[in-house]
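Continued from yesterday's entry.
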Amino acid sequence: MAYVLGMNAKLYYNTGSYASPTWTEISNVRDVTLSLERGDSDITTRGGGGWRQSVATIADGSVDFQMVWDTTDTAFSAIKTAFIDATTVEFLVLDGSSSTSGNQGLRATMAVTSFSRNEGLEDALTVDVSAKTAYSDNAPAWYSVP
């Protein structure tokens, strides 16, 4: 049985273009959650034998993570700027390194919709970040490292 530890997964953002991406690892990141969901439509018929029947519809993707508040960190600054300026960031959420063939995850242009600073009395300042798939010329896609 193969498994991947969460600490070996990677979160990247694109500092290049979509056609020629430069994946830069976001190393100042703590717990990451990639959420993929689909809506559903009720298509129940009399032929369903008394069971409700559904079909999957539109997909929804988001990534939530925490960063240490570090204004000298380039990735932190890029994500903060995207939130402040209401611009997008292209993320790659992988189960390992972007240089290892076969690793996979979501590639998507996302809007940073939440950037909440935590100020625990005995803790380092951190920020909780939420990003959701955004309007883009390039649809989100499941990506496998070639």
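--- second protein ---
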Amino acid sequence: VIYLYTDIRTIDRIGRQEIRTLGSGRVVVARDGRLIAGRWRKDSPESRTRFFDEQAQEIQLNAGLTWIEVLRLDN
């Protein structure tokens, strides 16, 4: 499971959300029974989102399904 923190704001009275998916932000990856804190980064709409630990090393994901939970960044 990946917990991706980003800016989320409500854009109308219906409750639709605008979610920032470009740039970078905080991430926590739950893998192999442990939590790995770090940063996510997505440079362009065409690029994939990448995840890095606190030493700036890319976090390798296990084969299979990975759930990504997008959470509001609390300031």
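The longest strand covers residues 23-31. The mean pLDDT is 96. Will compare against the first tomorrow.
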